[in-house]
Specification:
The complex is a heterodimer. In chain A, α9 packs antiparallel against α12. Chain A is built from 16 helices and no strands. Helices cover 72% and strands 4% of the residues of chain B. Chain B has a two-stranded antiparallel ribbon. Classes of the chains: A mainly alpha, B mainly alpha. Chains A and B meet through α1, α4, α5, α6 and α8 of A and α1, α4, α5, α6 and α7 of B.
Amino acid sequence: MKKTNTYTLKRKSREVLLSVLRIVFFVGIGFYILYPIFTKVMMSFMSEKDLYDATVSLVPKTWTTENLKLVFEAMEFPTAFKNSIILSLMVMVLQLVSALLVGYGFGRFDFPFKNLLFVLGIFMLVVPPSTMILPLYLTYSNFDILGIFGLITGEKLNLLNTHFPFVLSSFFCTGTKGMMFVFMFRQYFRNMPKEIEEAACVDGAGEFRIFFQVMAPSSKPIAVCVALLSFVWQWTDILYTGWYMSGYKLLSVNLYALTENVKVFIAQGGSVVIGPAYQALLNGIGTILVILPLLIMYLFLQKGFIQSVERSGIVG
Amino acid sequence: MKRTIKNSYYNGKTLTLKGRKARTGLLFVAPLIFGFIFLFAVPLFNSFMFSVGKIQLSPEGYSFKFLGFDNYKYIFFEHTTFIRSFLTTIKDVVLDTPLILVFSFFIAVLLNQKFKGRMWVRALFFLPVIISSGVVMRLDNQAYVESHIFHSGSETGTVMSNMMGGIGLSDYLIKLGISEGLVDYLNTASEGIYSIINASGVQILILLSALQTIPESLYEASSIEGATAWENFWKITFPMLSPFILVTCVYTIIDSFLMVGSDTYNMTRLIESTVNEKLDFAVASAMSWIYFVAVGLILALISFIISRYISYTE
């Protein structure tokens, strides 16, 4: 006599219920995350009158690309894009290299004051940027280490409006969340088994060779993570870029000043009033333009990125 | 025969092996040492000096007059919005951090289970980190376009509250007979959820990686012993994650500095406006120092409390 197995039936139905709940939950949250982007993209194609039209809610009635063109030119997109790429790539590479070196040092070596130095490094993360920005600005405008430059050339260097402040801050771990990358690399290298190092040593490799040929290549997953984060944070940064390179055309800065730029652009000498709704529409378009490269990059890297972070063990 | 075992870096003439390794280590760490001294400690000290004096900027440099703690007295007793901004921001940090922690924890546990499309959902949750940072976040808080497109009528607020109004959800709920206070509360909660989701990206990642270090065998063993899922969670998952809860907590608090909140009374915005518009650097320095000290104290307090409950398993 066949008995229906109620146990598996109960279990299966519970699993199905959980899946459904899970799907609903994630769709709901996905909505929260994706909705603003979706709105902005839809708005990019709306004309100004659509904003005030009561019947228009999401899909534009009059499809127009004129606002897109307007923002594109007012933001000086090609120049700003090129500049932003150069700056962000430079910062990314420097932060990656520096975090790799310093993280390896903390992870595999023992030296006096090691713990103290690490705590000081974390302390660098804790201080709010607004506390530091003014003295840093003054430091970079009269840059002189221990009086060396003053002795040689007779006057101090003004590093503003060059790429140098960023070179310095990214390479010396003081940039945006620079120490966090050091922390990640340190955790990773701490977890590498000593056997690999010893095997390389037995094979006759010196310290630096061990580093370049064994340790660094194996940390590729973390390197991808650090590179992505560093690039993204630099791409959208306005605090440091605004202060250090005020004359320089960058995407993030241009986006922040978009309303003013558009006014100047349209007016060509006269004066123009832009309503708040239209202003927000322009900002929305600008945001999409600025984010788009990041999104594309993220789409390509995302699989490797997320898998790598988990496998790497930032933790444990 | 007495033999002293030296465990030092230097054995009188040359460096020991330990010493040589230490030297290499220091070499690797050199950028940090340089950066800390010249690009951090010195400017930090300067910023403190600014806060106790008066600054006049000139093309060649700046002139400085020592004034004692006048600036601090000013911001506490005379400045119109400082105390309010300060308290609002502190309140925000203290309230938001646990919410973000709990939410990230919950999501990380969910994402750790095996289900189809797991990769996509993880990518989805990490998306806000890419999108909402820096410039984009500031602009988002200033955007009230939806209020015009959707005619919900409110002039301020972030995307979500206006969306709720716009879809007509809040009106619909009111028509259903639900009191306006409740609908209002739901609106604010929805706004809150939005900001929490945006702030949780990195934390979810950290906690997710941490969850994956817990060996499956622990769960199997406890299931054999007859533990329920609830007990599993509180006796295995939670304690093993406790060190990382501390890390996440510290990170969340630090991250909140960079976020310019949606209120008008927000410290970061106040400091920046003091610097950019009023050009009053000394006062701005004093403000940031107070802010820094306050948050430093909160961090220290929280670390201290949480450390007592952390169970290390190594």
